[in-house]
Amino acid sequence: MLTLGILGLGEGRSTMSAALNSSKVKLKTICDLNEDLCKHRSKEFQFFNYTTKYEDMLNDPEIDSIAIYTPDKWHAEHIKQALLANKHVVCTKPLIDDLSKAKELLDLQNKTGKKLFVGQSSRFFEPAKRQRKDFEAGLLGELITVESHYHADHRWFLEKSWALESSFKWLYGGLSHPVDFIRWYLPDIEEVMGYGMISSNGKAAGLKNEDTMHFIFRATDGRIARVSGAYTGPIQPAQRDSGMSVIVRGTEGASQADYHELRYAITDKTGEEKIVQWGDKTIKYYFRFEGQSHHAGEYQNYLEYFADSITNNTTAYPDLKEGIGTIALLQAMDRSLKTGAPVKVSEILKTHGLS
Ligand SMILES: NC(=O)c1ccc[n+]([C@@H]2O[C@H](COP(=O)([O-])OP(=O)(O)OC[C@H]3O[C@@H](n4cnc5c(N)ncnc54)[C@H](O)[C@@H]3O)[C@@H](O)[C@H]2O)c1
């Protein structure tokens, strides 16, 4: 059983729903600097134990785990404070937005022995879980390549003040999902190159960093992969093209997991073709509020996975080390956008005293 405090109540709303619906999680306190938001969430979920001070949760001995949903640039600091207060941590993606504090966090985790789990929601979505299970069961043979994209009409997001700061990058906010998929199947990416641009919609809104990007990757064993993201324009109908997809191609089969429409398709090693679409009940489990732009179902899946890892003393993945590996890759991608040249992940890790 996790006894949880939630920090940040924008996206933390879905975590509240997840925690309150799970028998493996006890929600103790919610926290946001914005008291009106605390009151709003309290009323929405009839859960009235809120605070505007993070320290209140850190100093509460009953809380064993903190779940962090503050803006990206605060994650490193909020993780550090949680570890120093001897709490386990769930941190939403992107884990951190640069590697300057990565070594400090690793050292701190070693010292405290506390667990850190990256809330990489996309891995915990039904089609992605099914795809992974089939892959691990050998239905595709040996992996050849992985392709993933995350395209979304996130123009609404540009109204958040921090979306227009120079510290905000879709590279981290958006591409962390498909890049995590790539590393799930090909952990040892050695080199990446890509192009990016700010679209005219992004420019008009005052965005400071790229909203449209395409990248290719090479792993240490020579296998290749690709990822793309576009965030400030309309997307195709979900029936035709899911906003987020992963295609895994193997020596004996191929599969595709689609985030939208909860769709999964596979040609397995026997040649059998199957398309699975989950029903209304599963859709309601994942999308509990309006629309499909929130993640309560995935968060419940990952909170329960994390709770089990604490009960059984196993590691929940992505852990801190894997999460930092993904940030290193994102940072290599960022450098490639700036230089127009391929970048080795090892160079990035070396710069930050990591190996
Ligand atoms: N699929 C996913 O996993 C997913 C989806 C959406 C957002 N996110 C992540 O969730 C995080 C938050 O995004 P959001 O859209 O909710 O942003 P948001 O700006 O709407 O909410 C962040 C909240 O954090 C609060 N906050 C900031 N500093 C605080 C502090 N020191 N103490 C207490 N509260 C503090 C703010 O008041 C705000 O309400 C981002 O890192 C984002 O990438 C993840």
Automatic annotation (TrEMBL):
Gene3D superfamilies in alphabetical order: Dihydrodipicolinate Reductase, domain 2, NAD(P)-binding Rossmann-like Domain
InterPro entries assigned: Gfo/Idh/MocA-like_OxRdtase_C (IPR004104), Gfo/Idh/MocA-like_OxRdtase_N (IPR000683), Gfo/Idh/MocA_oxidoreduct (IPR051317), NAD(P)-bd_dom_sf (IPR036291)
All residue ranges annotated as the Gfo/Idh/MocA-like oxidoreductase N-terminal domain in the record: 4-119
Domain of life: Bacteria
GO MF term (any one): nucleotide binding
Gfo/Idh/MocA-like oxidoreductase C-terminal domain mapped to chain residues: 136-345
SUPFAM superfamilies membership: Glyceraldehyde-3-phosphate dehydrogenase-like, C-terminal domain, NAD(P)-binding Rossmann-fold domains
Database matches in PANTHER family: CONSERVED EXPRESSED OXIDOREDUCTASE (EUROFUNG), OXIDOREDUCTASE
Record protein name field: Oxidoreductase
Organism: Niastella vici
Phylogenetic lineage: Bacteria, Pseudomonadati, Bacteroidota, Chitinophagia, Chitinophagales
